[in-house]
């Protein structure tokens, strides 16, 4: 297995050092596995299910999970979908600099959590691990440089 570059660690450290603080984020009930696969969408109504990972935690992490899915899906309309989601879900966050900065780090943490899952439960060949490490390297670069797809939404 290829080890992610030292640059990934440095990028994570740079995101944290830029002033993001967990104390600034709302803490409370979280779904814990907030993604499209755990939603039933019926017209304008969305029902969440699969609450086996729920509990108290950083609520923005739930939002970041949707941002992470948009990032890895590679949709050209990711920024539009992200803006619509945030505006509908928590309108007060729209344009918040603290939220925009924290969400980049939290999206990167989602990527790291996905790798932890792969390490714990999956046997991947060397080529697949190289792909996983490349994606982490790429996502960490985009998170630090403000180039995540969700960062393209207007304030």
TrEMBL record:
<protein>
    <recommendedName>
        <fullName>Aminoglycoside phosphotransferase domain-containing protein</fullName>
    </recommendedName>
</protein>
<feature type="domain" description="Aminoglycoside phosphotransferase">
    <location>
        <begin position="10"/>
        <end position="81"/>
    </location>
</feature>
<dbReference type="InterPro" id="IPR002575">
    <property type="entry name" value="Aminoglycoside_PTrfase"/>
</dbReference>
<dbReference type="InterPro" id="IPR011009">
    <property type="entry name" value="Kinase-like_dom_sf"/>
</dbReference>
<dbReference type="Pfam" id="PF01636">
    <property type="entry name" value="APH"/>
</dbReference>
